[in-house]
């Protein structure tokens, strides 16, 4: 028989839950205060599940939860909370609660199902399911306890409609985690839309987020839907939220408070049901203290905060990540020697998994189909040239800069020198061809995660030509 403990100071709630679950054949014990809770002899009485209200007159539900989990770790705890205490309920999940439910109970069937699911859940099976789902979203869970707990927490909050704030250093996996939250949520069949708030101007960001009417500004030749509209019932991922301007922050706050927004140039309001996941490299709490970020918006966004650990704090995950990153390039038959892995584990990874991914790609590219990568093949010392930030815009920019510098030099030579040294200019042109060629190949490899076939296809050149360009690189 299932033994259920209900802790709630509202007598009617206790009576209702007692009736509901007794009818299902459970043995239900109800207590109405912390004092009554502590009168239970937990050494004698075993509970399979407990439903605990967070707010009790004589104590805090969290402390009861901690006590119960310490005495009976296998007992599944379900937190009961009002809307205003959802954030604390999420904290409770970090302390061992399996789930939470909001009061007043709207749908009794959902409530019954939630408890049934908890009682029937097999922890091993569940973990297996979560890890597989994560892998499908491109997220390797790894061995470290820190990350395992984080992913399980992310999975649980994915089921709710609360806003999530993801914090972590650059390249630590904030975007992949947000995609996982979307895939694990009941919204997984709806769109996932991501936008980087730091990458575009304020006016463009406003129009991207909220859309615009025809004629709203110069160049607005057509009406356009914004991301809040396109996301519909799906997930909107706001990356680098700390970089959103004060004006955009006000507009976001309004949407979060009212769920309403207006297209630029329109006075009609539209409603959104999208779930917001925001991410930041910067500690948002500190940004609030520096008056760089609105406090009210911060509280709206961080109902749940997920902190992704830096790669240097989870080095035990490097072997699994390396395997995943190698497979991602389509070269699963290549392995890394133990010494090579050790070398990777000794490094501090300021650019986190993105930097690791770049190093792996670079190593595989230069090792040219070697079956086993040795420590010597890994070029960490050149990491200054490995772009840590998202590369495509930077890479394009670097090609443009190159061309521009070269053009300036050539014009200066034409104007300053009396005699034109054609031989030298032709040599420089050859040099430029090779530099730009290499840069474009490296960009294509970056975009295709090092997959040479795919890169050659995108550049519309043969594999032989691609190898030729890369081999030239080896010689320089
Ligand atoms: N747990 C993981 N498993 C596998 N790959 C990962 C994991 N975390 C991150 N990556 C890979 O690392 C790279 C960077 O990840 P992502 O873009 O999610 O980082 P980010 O924290 O959002 O970066 P930024 O701060 O620059 O926005 C991507 O190629 C991603 O696929």
Automatic annotation (TrEMBL):
It comes from Peribacillus butanolivorans. It comes from the Bacteria. Pfam families: AAA_lid_14, HTH_8, Response_reg, Sigma54_activat. The modification 4-aspartylphosphate is found at residue 53. Residues 3-118 form the Response regulatory domain. This is Sigma-54-dependent Fis family transcriptional regulator. Residues 140-365 form the Sigma-54 factor interaction domain. Keywords: ATP-binding, Nucleotide-binding, Phosphoprotein, Transcription, Transcription regulation. The keyword Transcription applies.
